[in-house]
């Protein structure tokens, strides 16, 4: 299968990393037109994302460690090693995976600190490394001689191994283990903690047990696919990719049980290559799609890759919220039908947003067409700003699991000491009975720099914008160094200064977001030549020249606030407008009515004046609202400030809505 | 408690039934301004509802018996009697209750047949009675010596009695047992099958175990309250009402565990008398409210009754679909927030509709203000036509559990031989793993005549309209007989002929539905006097006179199709219109586009022309639709017929929507 497909078609072998080794990134396809620049090549130095990375390092990662200890999910491994399971086991059947995501987050954070290069960073990395080794030792002690690793199954008194593929999450947990091992391998390739060996033994077992003559089924929660594929890439072990391919091909054959929500819940209803849109559980669907891209790319399976591109396009157009969020159903955490996107019942799980970014990013790396790559990067950006950045509170110690677009009743404040049983609490909670989201946010923020830029033989492409230092090599000693200076997204000016360049021509690619009609590009040469100015249309704009040190490329993106109309087929938001500014979606939050003539008015009774565009005043985005005419009450109109959606619910209980009725 | 409250206030003692005994009706309050006319006093002779009663008798009731046998839910009682539980037990923890609802349905159906009085009816009643006795004998054999009765709890190898009040449904099941016993008692008061004694022994046990010094908690699913209250009324046993009162007062004290969805799920968040709106699980909420009305009425607790009236009004205005359906959430089968009424995710459980009718009807019986009574009857009618009549297929052998208002994808046909695991299947299923709805429909249809008319000392009030014969006695030998002739709802003319009347004045009350602006009332005296004509405004219109035999009162209700605008606060249907005609809500179903210029167009791409009102053509309601303008495709407009919502999905897989976008 692999060899034939690879011979028949597929992408070129991916460009080699500057070091000759693997990029320090979560996803490093064997094939593709461009390669990701890793954490050692891109460093976010300031601004919106660097601040979140800092909060992640100092707030979120220690917070997760605290709760994993407190809830006993880490302790489960100690009990396993001591032969004291199942009696003392705590947490849900998938709790092992949170430990692995925590390890992955620490590994990437070590990589980020290593790249920073300061004495403080080295000290931070040393502390993280000690914690990492401690956790790995406890995990490794629980691994069984044949490589099996799970605290919930297989011991006397527990259900047998692989006896509950629908709900047991054993392979799912291992997928996260493999991603943690990949992070360790790529950030500290010479580390002797043993996590990579733990992962290798488990992956070998999976490849045997679920191999060509083994159990002919899949895990109820996709994740093993991305884990195996990337572990295979990191360890140069083709068996793992082949096993990932088997799992992808088996999915949709109905080997899992039919359940209340149908086999579509775990995508076992239709083979991946025959599906036309993502469906079912939104995290499962996106993890599976991401793993299928890995398989399609590395095995040269263009038909599968094409099907996945189509699924992405349909899902983005018909089953994705304006925030980038995915998943309309609370009941099964699932996609709804096309255009079934209710704001008030948006589930928009944080993990689904992260999984969607994983899917989009993998397509971006495979996109031959730069315009396609820009579309995929657009959704990555939309989801990062409006789902992933929304989940954690400002201090990084409480989180949304679900990210509603409309809050009708102010929620009660979450107790910072209490585990929330609810995914739909209206204020952020410190920890959940199902706590997949916090460590998923942590590993994403720690590795975030890897989503910002790529390189090919011709040059460097910037897909996301933040103050950054970029240093890479196009091969053959063609070193490039760039400094990105910007206040984006507060301001639309992105300034890229060339700090090092080879003597020959190369190309700087810059994404122009889909909302950025009217963008302008300026090339300001260090030698004082006249400034070159051109229009920059949405897509990927390329500047090809023999750059000199000191040359500056400026991309000016129009970030004035704008109204966004809904798709007329989306019933739930007919007759409304949203306000966006650059990549940020804005929301009306009740606390911002205080001090206006509309103080105390229920958001349900407000309409936005569509004839007066949103504008900026005193650094905030404001719109004109009026109270809907009701019998016996005077009409009241006032300007009110909106809040970036990712900042909502930071000022006490409130009501909120993104889509504002126009009448 | 009871005695004090009764002394302090409350409604008058309810008027006595014609027979001096209890009306043959499901609800017979001890107090109230009017009493229900029972199955022996009101007989539906033809038309919309009589046809459904016939299908219920010949289709649904046997169908339910078949499935109760086939699924072993009836057999569980035999296993219990044989000491063979728990090994062989089948079905969910509440499966006993379906057997009891089945018994209740049979008991009312026997009463209906007894009232018909024909030889065929007598034969049908005899067959039903034999089946009834067989089932009762099997149920009675499973009852334990102390009165406990439940096949799921209390035996060796089962969980102990009352050990899982949150989810065990033991009291819930007994509530349904009591309602079955009430039906038997009122339809065949002298029957010797023993069901009433079974119920009495169980009710005595409950009153002991959960009495003043017993377990101070409630059942996770309300129902025992209505069951105990009515059994107390039927058997003249004040202990049972007192126990119902205890259960009502204990609710909302937080004696049940907090759960993922919060204690509001089972209304244990706020005391009944402090609540302002129904919330949580919609069936639980309405059953509880109905039982609380029973308690409030009989104990003279005006404060509690007032709170329940306010809850009803708020729920009807803010948390009820245009169909009368209640419950916006699939996840927890629950009410949403105010104005959270998405069409596409409407749960609108059939049982919630029935429970809402139970709540409304109890308020109606207690309403001193006839206008209030008309409002309650309005919602009963809306819910009967558009929820209860929608659930069963035309043959009465498959059912909706959930009643969506918007179907985007055609569903697969349900297999008539397969139990559906899903409550949200888009075609009706013959049986469900949770199969509360089919027997709930059956008992409601069998007892439906009891919802049509009431009497007080001054006369008779008609609340619902159908061809019917009504015969009652106002007391003191003041006999009244009425014949109702109508094609309602197809036609708006309701003709009430006086077939017997006392010699003195009395009052005929007629409900004018809220949608019936422009209704006219005519009194056509048998003596040839000039016809009296007057406007009939929505509410209750009263005709007081010395009626003669042959006098006719005609109510002419305008049933021309009309557009209905949504409340502007209901986000999900902003910018749409619904079409109603009389009490029926209409829907656009994709199969009706065939043969028009819009054949094959996705309903998502259609808008209704609001400038052209709905009209009738060839006996159908038609509207003008056009395909929404999209790039490159011509505008198409056409007239298309709508279907009464209760008739949808009878012609194969289809898509459907009630609320039609206007642009």
TrEMBL record, chains A, B:
Pfam families: Beta-AFase-like_GH127_cat (PF07944), Glyco_hydro127C (PF20737), Glyco_hydro127M (PF20736). Keywords: Hydrolase. The keyword Metal-binding does not apply. Residues 561-661 form the Non-reducing end beta-L-arabinofuranosidase-like GH127 C-terminal domain. Residues 1-25 are annotated as: Disordered. InterPro entries: 6-hairpin_glycosidase_sf (IPR008928), Beta-AFase-like (IPR049174), Beta-AFase-like_GH127_C (IPR049049), Beta-AFase-like_GH127_cat (IPR012878), Beta-AFase-like_GH127_middle (IPR049046). One of its GO terms (biological process) is carbohydrate metabolic process. PANTHER family: DUF1680 DOMAIN PROTEIN (AFU_ORTHOLOGUE AFUA_1G08910) (PTHR43465). This is Glycoside hydrolase family 127 protein. It comes from Agromyces seonyuensis. The lineage of its organism: Bacteria, Bacillati, Actinomycetota, Actinomycetes, Micrococcales.
